[in-house]
Amino acid sequence: MSGEFILLLFVLALAIFLGFELISKVPSTLHTPLMSGANAISGITLVGALQAGGAGQDALSIGLGVAAVAFATINVVGGYAVTHRMLRMFSRKDRS
Q: Of 78, 67, 88, nearest to 39 (Cα)?
């Protein structure tokens, strides 16, 4: 194993640990705003995936770009659906 690979594994493990620690300490009232922010970041990822897929360097980069667009689209649509569902929980119900 090269030193660069070990460094990447360390960064991945650190990101997983820090992400878990941060998310577990977020109060439930802040989950909806954080989810909206994460959806915006996923939208930026979608733009990058479109650019990577449209570069047309070779078949591998086009295939990876198409896969990235598909996964980023699923992430954005699913994230906004979950956010919408969470916001509906806080909306007022008509008492007619």
A: 78
DSSP character string of 54-90: HT--SHHHHHHHHHHHHHHHHHHHHHHHHHHHHHHHH
**pLDDT tens profile 33-87:** 777 777 777 788 888 888 877 777 788 878 888 888 888 888 888 888 877 887 7
CB-CB contact of 80 with 39 (8 Å): yes
Is 0.85 topped by the overall pTM?
A: no
DSSP category for residue 26: S
The per-residue b/e assignment along 30-48, b for 16 or more CB within 10 angstroms, e otherwise, is eebeebeeebeebbebbee
